[in-house]
Amino acid sequence: MNLVNKRSLLKTAALSALALAALAGCSKKEEAPAAAPAPAAAPAADKLKVGFVYVSPIGDGGWTYQHELGRRAIQEKFGDKIESTFVESVPESADAERVLRDMAAQGTKLVFATSFGYQEFVQKVAPDLKDVKFEHATGYKTAENVATYDTKTFEGAYLAGIVAGGMSKTKTVGVVASVPIPEVVRNINSFVLGAQSVDPAIKAKVVWVNEWFSPPKEAEAATSLINGGVDVMYQNTNSPAVLKTAEERGARAFGKDGDMSAFAPKAHLGSAVIDWTPYYTKVVEDTLAGKWQTGNFWWGVKEGAIDLLKIADDVPQEIKDRVAKARAGLQDGSFAVWTGPIKDNTGKEVLAAGQVGDLPFLTSINFYVAGVEGKVPGTEGK
């Protein structure tokens, strides 16, 4: 599905302060220069060189790990037709520009920049490197040789919310959130909408850590939520710290982006898992065939890009059936997460009964839905 102006809300005053921080360096501190690209196969002149830029360590699951699984999958599928490389822990800063230029200098012709904050650096280098095709994850700015792509992570969040609504005993769920950009706010709200589809009395709390990957901050945020009465947590961060904290404190939580069940088997309720392999396969196939195209691409449950997996055994069958029904609706198009009536937490109707949120709506969400405490950072007083 084509996605136009996916992050256009960042230009509004509502999220300007922190969203611009996300563009410049929201998820990683600029601590040390990233390493040179690590080759995954021996170079060959006739191979398509494909590079991946990662914002956090590949390490133990989550966002970057899922991208790495996609890289490994295309390397295996295409064999000696391609050579793939990666650089991990690249800050969303000027260091990203250096890595992108280094990849191009080494003959890389297809580059996947896998974090939102790389956007301006991709846009800066692309005009100088016309023979390189850039694919920017979660961004919204395209160019002649720049495409953007993303998964509908909010669909996975909604499915997780259904489970949360059926499992919460305190009727208070929580989210450990990264940075206040539309993608993250949309995921928070979708999780809550899923929970309220099971139990309309569900309330929600949110703690922001203002980084994508910071296990200590994520653990601290999870602890704060639990101390505030939350017994089921979701996250929009990259480590399993929230799950581990839930396990230590007797709460429940979900894995995000990858299967995190092994990190906290007692606490784990399910993982909203992204599979980048279908999209990466298509892009490599198109590039090899000389058919690469720019554009905005947004894949979800329908395309096999996101799903809730490893649902815990103690989740009641009725709740599992609800998840299955919602999944089937997302697959065949008979159900949309953002279908009215939906109100924000001030009581304002944002979608009328039967109205389905369109692309501009979904990419400009800067409010909490009813039941979520507080305001989105940057919108206070508005």
Please explain how this structure is put together:
- The structure is a single chain.
- With 382 residues, this protein is α/β, with parallel strands linked by helices.
- It folds into two domains: 8-152 and 276-303, Response regulator (Rossmann fold, 3-Layer(aba) Sandwich); 153-273 and 306-362, Response regulator (Rossmann fold, 3-Layer(aba) Sandwich), CATH 3.40.50.2300.
- The protein is built from eleven helices and 15 strands.
- It has helices at 16-25, 63-78, 94-105, 119-125, 153-167, 182-198, 215-227, 241-249, 277-288, 317-332, 359-362, and strands at residues 38-39, 48-53, 82-87, 110-113, 133-137, 146-151, 172-177, 203-208, 232-235, 252-257, 268-274, 296-299, 306-309, 342-343, 349-351.
- The strands form three sheets. The protein has a seven-stranded mixed sheet with strand order 1-3-2-4-5-6-12, with helices on both faces. It has a six-stranded mixed sheet with strand order 8-7-9-10-11-13, with helices on both faces.
- α7 runs parallel beside α8 (241-249).
- The longest helix is centred in the middle third of the chain and has 17 residues, at 182-198.
- It is globular, with a radius of gyration of 20 Å.
- Mean pLDDT is 90; it is low at 1-33.
Q: How many DSSP-defined strands?
A: 15
Computed over alpha carbons, the radius of gyration is 20 Å
The total count of helices amounts to: 11
Q: What characterizes the major β-sheet? A: 7 strands, mixed
Order of helices and strands: HEEHEHEHEEHEHEHEHEEHEEHEEH
Mean pLDDT: 90
Overall body shape: globular
The percent of residues in helical segments reads 25-40%
Indicate the CATH class of the largest domain.
Alpha Beta
State the CATH architecture of the largest domain.
3-Layer(aba) Sandwich
Low-confidence stretches: 1-33
